[in-house]
Amino acid sequence: MKTFISLLFITVSIIAFFMLVKPKYDSLQSLQTEVATAQANLETAAKLAKSRDELLARYQGIQKVDLDNIKTLLPDSVDNIRLIIQINSLATKNNLSLLRSVDYQTEQVSAAPQDPQLVERPYGEFTISYQTTGQYKNFLAFLSDLEQNLRLVDVTKVEFTPVEPVNGQQASTGLTYKMTLKTYWLKQ
């Protein structure tokens, strides 16, 4: 009889374990996993908030003049009109003629598949070409001013041609310069 009662208690204990304790234990384990995941997410969120606050404090510490210079160096839009006006003012400052035959092209994003490196770039390219006329020394001064300008530009092509006579009369000494520049802008 003792053996029977012992076996009965063992059987009831095993059944009680699998019917009552095991499901509660499994749900406790899943809750502990969820709590650990939530705590890790909270820690990550706290780190991100701290990083955001530090970056915001650094950003707010930058002087307005410096921010304006950064926006001039790498603007957040193409702003082609301002660029053309800026180049034209540099040309007239250096005694070159006003810009003529201005042509520009913004980098196109088409629906067709293209080079993945171009799509992933955080910046866009803007190409502008134009003509101006003047003395070579003035052109060199213009290039120097263009180099010192805050707006980032790459001179990709320069063509020199003599100034053509107007109405059969010999033109003043000087050259016509056909230039192509590439500038950049920050994609949003």
Provide a descriptive summary of the structure in words.
- The chain starts with a helix and ends with a strand.
- The model has no long low-confidence stretch (mean pLDDT 83).
- It is rod-shaped, with a radius of gyration of 36 Å.
- The protein has two domains: 1-61; 75-108 and 116-186, Ribosomal protein S6/Translation elongation factor EF1B (Alpha-Beta Plaits), CATH 3.30.70.
- Strands 1-2-4-3 form a four-stranded antiparallel β-sheet.
- Helix 3 packs across helix 5.
- It has five helices and four strands, in the order H-H-H-E-H-E-H-E-E.
- With 188 residues, the protein is of the alpha+beta class.
> SSE string, helix = H, strand = E?
HHHEHEHEE
Describe the main β-sheet briefly. 4 strands, antiparallel
Kindly give the count of domains. Answer: 2
What is the CA-atom radius of gyration, in angstroms? 36 Å
What average pLDDT do the residues reach? 83
Low-pLDDT segments: none
Helix/strand class: alpha+beta
What is the strand and helix layout of this fold?
Layout: H1 2-60, H2 64-73, H3 80-93, E1 100-106, H4 116-120, E2 123-134, H5 136-148, E3 153-162, E4 175-186
Antiparallel strand pairs: 1-2, 2-4, 3-4
Helix pairs in contact: 3-5
How would you summarize what this structure contains?
With 188 residues, this protein is α+β, with helices and mostly antiparallel strands. Helix content is 54%, strand content 22%. It is rod-shaped and about 130 Å long.
Key words describing this protein structure:
188 residues; alpha+beta; Alpha-Beta Plaits; 2 domains; four-stranded antiparallel β-sheet; 5 helices; 54% helix
